[in-house]
Amino acid sequence: MISTARVPADKPVRIAFSLNDASDDTPPEDSIPLEFPELDQQLQPLPPCHDSAESMEVFKQHCQIAEEYHEVKKEIALLEQRKKELIAKLDQAEKEKVDAAELVREFEALTEENRTLRLAQSQCVEQLEKLRIQYQKRQGSS
Question: Residue 58 burial by CB count (10 A; 0-12/13-18/19+): exposed, middle or buried?
Fold first, then answer.
């Protein structure tokens, strides 16, 4: 059963219909909401002429396309969010790579400093041993 009512042009209209070939007596379980707020006004499906099967078919197709458009926009939004997450991970990985490179350079510098200090220590130990020997010789000769 189709009911009609006059609605002011500035008021939003919500229409639902079923794509099934069910009788008018059954409740519309799979009805498609025909309000598409994400669409520009000029892209909104126009109400069909209920006397024309072709108009109804075009209207249904337009609604299906609007639904697909909505799904694609949701997918784009999800992909853009994923892109942001991946960019953040990449930035973090690059920062960690830079940090790791700095740590490697610091390790190499400290390793070189350690080697230099060990060499200086061994030279000091040798020099101290020579001084002890000289001191003992002086003590023994006096």
Answer: middle
Q: What is the pTM of this model?
A: 0.50
Nearest to 48 by CA among 94, 85, 2, 11: 2
Residue pair 33/14 in contact (Cβ under 8 Å)? The answer is yes
Q: What is the pLDDT of residues 16-57, one digit of tens each?
A: 555 554 445 444 444 555 567 777 888 888 888 889 999 999
Six-digit token string for 127? 């020099």
Please tell me the distance from the alpha carbon of residue 73 to that of residue 140, in angstroms, as a whole number. Answer: 99
Confidence label for 99 from pLDDT (cuts 50, 70 and 90): very high
Listed in sequence order, the residues at least 6 apart from 62 whose beta carbon sits closer than 8 Å to its beta carbon are 45, 46
- The Cα–Cα gap between 50 and 59 comes to 10
Specify the length of the chain in residues. Answer: 142
d(CA 42, CA 84): 32
Distance of CA 75 to the CA centre of its chain: 12
Location of structure tokens 């200086």: 120
Partners of residue 17 on adjacent β-strands: 32
